[in-house]
Amino acid sequence: MAAANLIDGRAIAGQIQLEVAQRVAALKSRGVQPGLAFVRVGEDPASKVYVGMKEKMCGQLGFFSETKVLPPSATENELLALLGRLNADPRIHGILVQAPLPRHIREAVVYSTVSPQKDVDGFHPINVGKLMLGDSSGFLPCTPAGIHELLIRSEIKIEGAEAVILGRGNIVGKPMAAILCQKARDANATVTICHRETREIKAHCRRADILVAAMGVPRFVTADMVKPGATVVDVGVNRVNDPSAKGGSRLVGDVDFEAVQPGRCRADDDCDADAQYGACGGACRRRRPHLGLFI
Length: 295
Prior knowledge:
This protein has two domains: 36-131, Rossmann fold (3-Layer(aba) Sandwich); 140-293, NAD(P)-binding Rossmann-like Domain (Rossmann fold, 3-Layer(aba) Sandwich), CATH 3.40.50. 33% of the residues lie in helices and 16% in strands. The protein has nine helices and ten strands. It has a five-stranded parallel beta sheet with strand order 5-4-6-7-10. It has a three-stranded parallel beta sheet with strand order 2-1-3, with helices on both faces. It has a two-stranded antiparallel ribbon with strand order 8-9. The protein is globular.
């Protein structure tokens, strides 16, 4: 839905893709073509779609890419051997191992086997450590790095902001907190991580200038949890039953978008309510939340 306060992630992605394509063209003019390898184990339908989307984008940007697929019965050692070959392949500059992996394969071992110099997912312990130390020479996990870029390009003030992260996962929550609290440009936020054991979680959310929802709980964030003027980024992708939808289900985020979306105020334009969000039937139009969907 178009709204002045709705962060246009597609437009920002388009800007970044154009910039990347130009950088790739410059590298290729010097005889270097960036190469990405995608590794998939098994035939998970969602994984096949995700890898296909990445392959398509590589082609559009001018990357060399290849996909390696192992059967679901592949052993951990077989996967590690494949990663070893990719680590040694000079055509490959980045390796992405698609999750989920079969239960008999240990993710931590797999991520630690990918060369830190090719670990573009940012999951290798060396890159995780570099993030915590503020060493910019390592790779960052793509989702929190993308959210950070979304905030920067949307001119959201991060320095000194109260940032609340819903979720403490290794892929989004923890690295997101680490990125925002760094002593660095476009950071220096005061960060709170909330999880299932957090007391008074609504009170924490209402204090947030920047709220990132990554809990994996459908529509967890409601209107009374968002203060006027806050920036909300929804990372959640949840499938819920919906008899009216094709196939009987649909995808929703961790944020109740219909309730929290900009422009939901039903009060007069001159509303000056100073109470918590929702006191006037929604956020005052002059203090709408900025809402970004990161799916």
